[in-house]
Structure formats: C-alpha cells, structure tokens
Amino acid sequence: MKKIAILGSTGSIGTQTLDVVRQHREDFEVTALSAGGNIDLLERQIREFHPSLISVGSEEKARELKQKTADLQIEIRYGMEGLLAVAAQEESQILVTAVVGMLGIRPTIAAIRAGKDIALANKETLVTAGHLIMPLAREYGVKILPVDSEHSAIFQSLNGEREHGNRIDKILLTASGGPFRGKTKQELGQVTLQDALKHPNWSMGKKITVDSATLVNKGLEVMEAKWLFDVELDQIQVVVHPQSVIHSMVQYADGAVIAQLGTPDMRLPIQYALYYPQRKYLAGERLDFYRLAQLTFEAPDSETFEGLALAIEAMKQGGSMPTVFNAANEKAVALFLKEKIRFLQITEIIRRAMEEIPCRQHPDLKTILDTEQAVYEFIESRW
Predict the structure, then answer these.
(1) Consecutive H or E run containing 199
(2) pLDDT for residue 203
(3) What's the pLDDT score for residue 198?
(4) Which of the ends of the chain has fewer CB neighbours closer than 10 A, N or C?
C-alpha cells in the first residue's frame, strides 16, 4: 500500500484525489489531511479514510473539528505548523500538494527534506521558488510528479525520451482559451464574476477558474514548465486548443511531435502521479474519435488577455519578479471574487505591482516571502 498525505483535501484537486483513492482502496492508505475551513467536509473525509494526522487553517477551526471528532483518535494541528507536520509526516510516502497559492512552498520544502515524493498541483511553488525546489528535489532524490493536466501531458510525452538523449525542440502548452476566448477588451470590461466562473471544459476551484479566464493561469504554467522540464523560456509555446482534447505536446529535434490526449478529467493526471510509472484502470468517459468533429488551434490573444504577456515578462526579468506577479494575481483575484474590483483590474493590479515592487535576483526563501508581503501591502494600500 502506498501511503498518501494530502494538503488541501477539501478543494477541487483534493476531493478528486480522494475519488481516485476510493476507486483503489487496495493500493492506497490516506495517512494525513489538511484543509482550510470546510470542517463539515473534512469530518466526512476523516470518517471515511481514517487518517491519523489532520491540519486545519486556524485554532478556532481546530477546536470545532475536535468537538466533531471527539469519538476518534486523531491528532489535530493548525496553521503553518500543522501544514509542515502533514508534509513531513513520517509514515507517508507521497505528498499531494493541492493547496492554492504560495502557502504551499514551505510544506513542499519540508516534504522533500523528509524524503517524500511530491504530486504537485500547487503551481505557485515552482513559479516563485523553482530555483530552490528543483535542486533540493535532486539533492534528496525525490520525484516531482506534475498533477496539472498540461504538465502531466508533457511529462507523459517525455516518458523515456530524455533517457535516450533525445533533445526537446519545443514544448507546446495547450490552453482552452477560457470562457472569454474571442472577446474584445471592451467586452471584457462588462463581464461579471458569474461569467468568469463558467469555464467551458473544466471543473475547478474558483481561483484557478478566474486565472483561466484572464490567461494568468497559462502564464503560471509556462513558468512552472520551465522549471519542471529544464527548458528555456523560448522553448515553450502556448497554443489555444478550445476542445481541451490534446492536453499538451512535445516537439523533438527531428520535428516529431508527441501529444497526450484524453477527456478533460483531472482524475487522470492525479492517478498517473500516484501510480507512476504504472497505469491503472480509471472509470470514466473515453475519447470517441468517431464523434470528434474537429480539433482546432490558434495563437493566444496576448494583447487582450495581458495576464499571459505579463507572466512572460516576469519570467524574463527573473529573480523575485515571478513572485511579484504571482502575489499580485492572488491578491487581485481575491478582490475580484469579493466583487471589489472589475475583471480587467486584475491584470491592471499585476502590472502596477510589477512596476512598483523592486526585483531582487537570486532570492532565498525569506526574500520570496518578504516580496509576497510587500506586494500584499502595496495592493492593500491602493485598492
């Protein structure tokens, strides 16, 4: 049995990870869970999967959970200390990092140092600290297994190729285009929160759904891909593919392109990461090539959707600028979800932060976290 700890068990990726475990109970044991504030769902997960260690967002939530689970023998912690305890739990073998935002950096580092493989769904960890995470993973001999559908597709398309010395020419990172593909900037000025949360293909959490609508998510994925696959920025090309059938591709030096295709089901990349390098049966819809009318491709509109262009610029500057980009987006999306700003103000806030917050080269973890705080304070003082 593979023993699994999950950061963010009540979110979209966390619940789908538990769906995979549910289908393969003979292969997996859940040893630790963390969640923010959804105590009712967390209690149901605890009673179903029987983990020994739990972490929640606050001391108040910890007290609430203790009252609900007084009949169970479990250890309950909270805050960052709790996340670190879950990440480094001695009995687990693999950590699924499904928390949103830079909250995942320190627990990921703790898990690597404890020798855990990482099933990575928290892209912000590599966006802001890839220069720290990837060398550390190599030092401790742990695997970083991507859970994002696009990065999993690239990972699968690379399988065995590099071991034979085959050189990557280009990574083709696909994007659905989100709910506003084809709209003008004037039209984007009128969209509502409800509009932004209607993704055409994928069922995801609110934050990542908004990121998909702005194309910021694709910018974050470009940054993550650079670190995950050790390629240069100019070797990554974003291709809009509205049908979300091809999840990403790799072009090799001889011009051959290898792609991974499938239905838009996040359980597939989750299960692939948990079982790697094996493939197991996964219940669900299969692609029917007789019914596929067409697969189309187009260039992204980076002028209308500035999030992607700003991400590329942040990556070119390097240092702490990807942290500025990411932190500004996190804060701006939080404001948008509370309907305190308009949709187009998300990228406006990111741009302003990148102009105002100094870029520091070769940032250590403290500098990364200090930069995040500086961005938050800058935005809070103006919006």
Answers:
(1) none
(2) 66
(3) 87
(4) N
Residue 148 has a pLDDT of 93
Is the Cα torsion angle 187, 188, 190, 192 positive or negative in sign? Answer: positive
The angle formed by the CA atoms of residues 96, 100 and 103, to the nearest 5 degrees, is 85
Residue 107 φ/ψ region, left for φ over 0, alpha for ψ in the -120 to 50 degree band, beta for the rest? alpha
Vertex 338, ends 333 and 339: CA angle to 5°?
90
Q: How far is CA 137 from CA 37, 199, 325, 366, 368, in A?
A: 30, 34, 24, 19, 19
Whether the full predicted model's pTM is greater than 0.70, yes or no, is yes
* CA separation, residue 165 to residues 96, 162, 228, 251, 333 (Å): 30, 5, 17, 14, 42
Pair 114, 216: CB distance under 8 Å: no
- CA pair distance 161, 84, nearest whole angstrom: 35
Residues found in the chain: 383
Question: Cα 294–207–150 angle (5° rounding)?
Answer: 40
> 117-120 and 144-146 as β-strands: parallel, antiparallel, unpaired?
parallel
Looking only at the bridges linking them, the beta strands covering 257-261 and 246-252 are antiparallel
Which residues sit opposite 246 in a β-bridge? 261
Q: What is the pLDDT of residue 293?
A: 85
- Which helix (H) or strand (E) segment is 23 a member of? helix 12-23
Report mean pLDDT in 10-residue bins for the chain, 383 residues.
Answer: 97 96 97 96 98 98 97 97 98 96 95 98 95 98 96 96 91 94 94 89 81 95 97 97 96 97 95 96 93 94 95 97 97 97 97 98 97 97 94
| 347, 258 Cβ separation under 8 angstroms | no
C-beta of residue 332 within 8 angstroms of C-beta of residue 365: no
Q: CA-CA distance, 255 to 258, in Å (whole number)?
A: 10
Identify the bridge partners of residue 145 per DSSP, sorted by sequence position: 119
